[in-house]
Design brief:
The complex is a heterodimer.
Chain A (H helix, E strand, L loop, with lengths): L3 E4 L2 E4 L5 E7 L6 E7 L5 E8 L5 E2 L8 E7 L2 E6 L8 E8 L9 E2 L3 E5 L1
Parallel strand pairs in A: 2-11
Antiparallel strand pairs in A: 1-3, 3-8, 4-5, 4-9, 5-6, 7-8, 9-10, 9-11
Chain B lengths: L3 E4 L2 E5 L4 E7 L6 E7 L6 E7 L4 E4 L2 E6 L4 E6 L8 E7 L7 E2 L3 E6 L1
Parallel strand pairs in B: 2-11
Antiparallel strand pairs in B: 1-3, 3-8, 4-5, 4-9, 6-7, 7-8, 9-10, 9-11
Classes of the chains: A mainly beta, B mainly beta.
Chain lengths: 117, 111
């Protein structure tokens, strides 16, 4: 089956630093990847749509200058949380939509737990 | 935009019994309805999905039904096992690739 990986799985950083999270599709290509944020015991909230070779599309209320997204290849998208603060602590999950996949089927990564001290 | 409601928020069933989780959606243009299972500290895993041209789909102990007229769809798990304990999310999309998730159901299987 299609596999999506995320790195790192956990990261702890100091307030004011930047953190980069990688999302990779391991056995398929994806022109579109999605980034979600999930608070404890809550649902997934779509942050942005990452498009290979073009700018990401951000959902309303998501600061694009704070959450930088780069989709440099058909298998890699990165999310950089810039000048992180404690309120950015969350579980970040990516998903990938295969180029040659079944209509609408997305595959999710295992998530990255970000803790900002 | 699409709005997906999910009930119940928590559900406890005896091992071997059946569990049913229900979702309603608002956008009549939605045509793809996946269900995800999320275990603690992990990403969501697709367990079953259904498209709007089908009323029911079954995969071993898991089944999903869709009522387009009423705009609701349900997940049915039969012969529940302890490993079915997890949080389950329904979702809907109208084909624009964006998924709108329900609020989740924490399912606990009592041994």
């Amino acid at each position: 089956g299609a596999v999506v990986s995320q790195h790192p799985s956990r990261v702890i950083c100091k307030s004011g630093t930047s953190v980069k999270i990688e999302c990779r599709s391991l056995d398929f290509q994806a022109t579109t990847m999605f980034w979600y944020r999930q608070f404890p015991k809550k649902s997934l909230m779509l942050m942005a749509t990452s498009n290979e070779g073009s700018k990401a599309t951000y959902e309303q209320g998501v600061e694009k200058d704070k959450f930088l997204i780069n989709h440099a290849s058909l298998t890699l998208s990165t999310l950089t949380v810039t000048s992180a603060h404690p309120e950015d602590s969350s579980f970040y999950i990516c998903s990938a939509y295969p180029i040659a996949g079944t209509y609408n089927e997305q595959f999710f990564g295992p998530g990255t737990r970000l803790t900002v001290l | 935009g699409e709005n997906v409601e999910q009930h119940p928020s928590t559900l406890s069933v005896q091992e071997g019994d059946s569990a049913v989780i229900k979702c309603t959606y608002s956008d009549s243009a939605s045509n793809y309805f996946p269900w995800y299972k999320q275990e603690l500290g992990k990403g969501p895993q697709l367990i079953i999905d259904i498209r709007s041209n089908v009323g029911e789909k079954k995969d071993q102990r898991i089944a999903v039904t869709l009522n387009k007229t009423a705009k609701h769809f349900s997940l049915h798990i039969t012969e529940t096992q302890p490993e079915d304990s997890a949080v389950y999310f329904c979702a809907a999309t109208d084909g624009n690739e964006k998924l709108t998730f329900g609020t989740g159901t924490r399912l606990t299987i009592i041994p």
